[in-house]
Design goal:
Elements: H1 2-35, E1 37-38, E2 50-56, E3 75-81, E4 84-94, E5 99-104, E6 108-112, E7 118-122, E8 125-133, E9 141-148, E10 154-159, E11 162-165, E12 181-184, E13 187-192, E14 198-200, H2 204-222, H3 230-246
Antiparallel strand pairs: 1-2, 2-6, 3-4, 3-7, 4-5, 5-6, 7-8, 8-9, 9-10, 10-13, 11-12, 13-14
Helix pairs in contact: 2-3
Length: 247
């Protein structure tokens, strides 16, 4: 009789434990699900170009200086697949995460998938993914968004980019703490054909080394071009590409 009571009590305890674990798992799953919203696709084509996860537009109360965006406002734009318009909507570029964000309603946004055949045009600027050499070692190849500044075999690319610099806590009551802040680290690259782009500075030396001094020196001089200016650098790139085509 005593053995039967022990077995019955053990069975009741086991059933209670299983029930409690089931409830806890269900609660955890519900909490996880409520934290991630799913995109409701008005355009069925969007399923192929955006992430399923959405994020709230205003989520951070962290005190930082500056912004992760060059323009925080969403602007009307187009998402292109293989050069053809696939979807339209309000877009913006996250310069820290290197992501194109698509607004979903008034409170949320989602990210455009990073695929080499998917690009985005925000107002008059085209954002495309290009391979480039990591400028820290010029060996590893990475992928990132660039704005192409000219057409042709040799392209001048602008890489809009920011990073978050760490803050510094005050060491004493007499010191002033420094909040974290976003800083602009945008740069220029040159890509030849389909090769990974390489980082340059808008200086005469870089254009002479890559394009060939003898090829462009006279053109630069006769047109009084300043290669530290973006517009003049674009003119040199266009001249060089046209010269290749004419040969």
């Amino acid at each position: 009789m005593q053995i039967q009571e022990v077995l019955l009590n053990s069975k009741q305890i086991l059933n209670h434990t299983i029930t409690m674990n089931y409830k806890l798992n269900a609660i955890a799953l519900l909490a996880f699900s409520s934290g991630i919203s799913q995109v409701s696709f008005n355009n069925p084509d969007e399923a192929a170009i955006v992430s399923y996860q959405t994020k709230p537009i205003n989520i951070s109360n962290i005190k930082t200086e500056g912004s992760a965006y060059f323009n925080e406002e969403f602007k009307w734009g187009q998402v292109l697949v293989n050069g053809e318009v696939k979807s339209t909507g309000n877009l913006r570029y996250n310069a820290v995460n290197s992501e194109i964000e698509l607004q979903k309603g008034k409170e949320e946004y989602t990210a455009i998938l990073k695929r080499n055949y998917i690009s985005a045009r925000i107002q008059n600027e085209l954002y495309k993914l290009y391979p480039y050499l990591d400028d820290t070692n010029n060996e590893s190849t990475r992928i990132g968004y660039f704005i192409p500044l000219n057409e042709g075999n040799l392209k001048l690319l602008y890489k809009p980019e920011k990073k978050l610099r760490r803050g510094k806590a005050a060491a004493t009551n007499y010191d002033r703490s420094v909040p974290p802040r976003y800083i602009d680290i945008s740069s220029y690259y040159i890509q030849k054909g389909d090769e990974p782009a390489i980082k340059i500075y808008l200086r005469k030396k870089y254009f002479y080394d890559i394009l060939g001094k003898d090829n462009i020196k006279e053109y630069v001089k006769s047109n009084n071009l300043k290669l530290n200016k973006k517009d003049d650098a674009i003119k040199v790139m266009e001249y060089y590409n046209n010269m290749l085509v004419s040969k």
